[in-house]
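Ticket reopened. Same input as before:
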Amino acid sequence: MSVIGALANHAAGPSDSSADPLWYKDAIIYETHVRAFHDSNGDGIGDFRGLLQKLDYVQDLGVTAIWLLPFYPSPLKDDGYDISDYTAINPAYGTLEDFKEFLAEAHRRNLRLITELVINHTSDQHPWFQEARSSRDSPRRDWYVWSDTDRRYRGVGIIFKDSELSNWAWDPISKSYYWHRFFSHQPDLNYDNPAVLEEVWKVMQFWSDLGVDGFRVDAVPYLVEREGTSCENLAETHEVVKSLRRRLNEKYPQSFLLAEANQSPADVRPYFGSGDEFHMAFHFPLMPRMFMAVKLEDRKPIVDILQQTPDIPESCQWGIFLRNHDELTLSMVSDEERDYMYDVYALDAGARLYLGIRRRLAPLMENDRRRLELMNGMLMSLPGSPIVYYGDEIGMGDNIYLGDRNGVRTPMQWSGGRNAGFSTVDPERLFLPVLSNAVYGYQAVNVDAQRRSENSLLAWMKRLIRVRRSSRVFSRGRLFFLQPRNHRVFAYIRELEKERVLVVNNLSRSAQVVELDLRPFEGNIPIEMFGENPFPRIGQLPYLLTLAPYSFYWFRLRRL
Amino acid sequence: MTEDSLLSDEFIRQLTAVSEVDIVVGLPTLNDSDTVQRVVTAILVGLAKYCPRERSVLINPDGGSKDGSAEAVQAASMPDFRAVLVPNPLRTMHVVSTRYPGVQGESEALTMLFAAADLLGAKACVLISPDLESVTPEWIDALVRPVLKNGFDFVAPVYQRRRFDGMLVKNLLHPLIQTLYGHQVEEPVGREMAFSGKLAAYFLGDESRRENFPGLGAHVWMTTAAMAAGYRLCQSFLGPRVTASRRSGLDLNTTIQEVAGTLFRCMEIHQSYWISRDGCEEVPTFGFQPVLDLDAARIDRKRMFQMFGRGVNELGSVLEKIVSPETLRAITEISKQEEKHFLFPDDLWVKTVFEFAASYHHSVINRDHLLQALTPLYRGRVCSFILENARAGNEDVDRKLESLRQQYQQQKPYLIERWNRQA
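Engineering reply: fixed in the latest deploy. New output:
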């Protein structure tokens, strides 16, 4: 199909599963940043044309959807989460036409596109805020949360404690305080004003009309404020979400909403409503516990959190991930767990940021291929739609000396050539320097090199994703834990209708033996899913398996 | 030829599942279902609170309880940790129960623990009694920390004792061990203790372990073996030791058989060590010891005195084979004193103990009979000690005990002379 032909179809979704409104349940999502992926015009900043040029790579990886970080006009004080225009493209990344072309090509490759809907706040450079602060009588004044005192909503937590002292900031122009749960340059929108909600809906329509398949809604719990509360997860916030979901369903029934709510599973559960709020929500607390489990060599942290995870409506799904563009957040763990995580994963204090660890997957796993595989194996076999952060599929490293979370947002490493194949610009002009150290630098870790090896991490990730996609039992099946005595072995059954998969993970750095009680599946033959090799038939006796360090098995249980 | 396995296949299966650990807590049981659940809870809370990052397993060797002790251990539910101000444990806490033959008592159980600790590569092992009523989670910290954090190999307990409590320890075990082995361990027969994995491996490999010292004797053997092998010792203050009342009245004859008998045997095993050793080292003590004046233990002094007199009278022919004529004469003389003026002086008591030890060594009579003959003399000594210190304060009693220890030290050459006499 020509580019022109694709453009003509830009509003249409991907062809293969377009009829399935639950497509997101089977999705494997690739998270990336336009700015960091590929630079087509040699200005040192990634752009939509660069992204388009790399779509074959994304498709080849086997993922089914792309989640793009904010690409809107922005002062970029918070990597684009400070938006100054909701319906335009940041000129550094291209034009709206470039975006349309990219989207059409993505759809042509059966790749869905999920974009950011940052609606809790805007940039203080957004015209809405400029207008609102210009005068207390401005018609936009009530689009934000103002106060003559900074004593309202006392006791509400400060998210960026490293850089903010208060959730109120003084506006010298209108001589009053405005509310911001995030940085002071990100004033919160006021959802008590119906006009704000209407404007947000217009934004959603704008992108949906262009063909965007879904929205990752940023900072959901903080939309509405009320005195005497934590200003999080309020009933009024749920009303906002329900309103947007209802309209989205009516006009764009294939679209979906993904909630960013860094809360406990019990607190996130209401955001699914009765299937009338979010389609998907990130399972934040699971992620640190996966890291904890591997370090502790003990399944307990994972089992604990999954057992605390409530059931969600049939049409809903968890979004699970190992790493993303933010720090590895430890806000949802106990003080003791956080101390432990810092001690084992961030001994270098420079790796600690806010309440988390600003590191990528490979450095966290000390570049241990076996642990990288184990973590990805669990990611792909636990309940939820897995999200792969760009570069983690090749084991990219990070640079904790770049400030804030930029260290995990460095240019994608395509080759061992100039600027890692990301850009032809002089290295000094890159938006962030490429990694160049001996272990994780682009000459050691890059797509080109890994494409040449059947044994590379990239090749392995492709196989993993292919096997994951071979069965919906992973994306839609129920989960049952097995409880072998050996706590270093994390074993579970995924079951969907008559299909069952047995997953056995060795969390330990040493070889383990495990006896599994598989009597309910007596007579089944476990077929190892990567090699399609049959194992001995399951009988009445405990099923004995030995596992190499950090290894895992996926067995399809078949009655033959 | 294959050696007998120390561990059953089923136990090994359970240990295989547990795999490598940092801490093994041993909790031997024998019909302790009334108290053991609370002890298990204290241990689990202690591990969660003080060793949250360490991999641990609680091993319960059970001697064939008829009251479901092992089941009670398994059923001891994890408490609501938040209610006891403890965070939810990071790790899985394993509780493994297994059977030991039971005939030899704790000795078999300890061997299983040594072997399990060795198999699991434990860094620290802790022993806790199942009938404790005073155990708290803090005991785990007090016992484990010196091993894991301070590099000690053996942690003996220090209990807060009532006056006149632990008379056998104060009058015989402690001063004798201090004199011979050169370490001031207050409770050489403490039921609660900790030792390093390295020391557990040593215990396991030490040939003398095979003698299966009975009951409390196993603890005496462990303490003296650790000293003789040069391991780093310390002690930790645990507080009062209160056990379920049904256990408190252990037969004195049995206790002396177990404790004094084992110590005399250990003196033979370790003679090359203690005969040439001189001086005494203070042992580091951890923990905070509050100043509390507890009520004195109740001892039926009158009955003790009577049993002493009767024993000396009835056992004269036995005693003359064990102790020297001078000693026997002196004992006989004091046995005729009136109770209110009765005094079994330090020098005579120490000389008596030394002569018993030497006679045990030379097997002048059946060793069990020899130890039985010590019992009435010990009763006399206790009676005398109580009379002497009836109105004494704690500090006065401490001074008296220090004087007794010096007496042991002064007479050590006499012991060596008696010990070597027939060699």
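Chain B touches chain A through 17 residues (CB under 8 Å). Chain B has 17 helices and eight strands. Please confirm and we'll close it.
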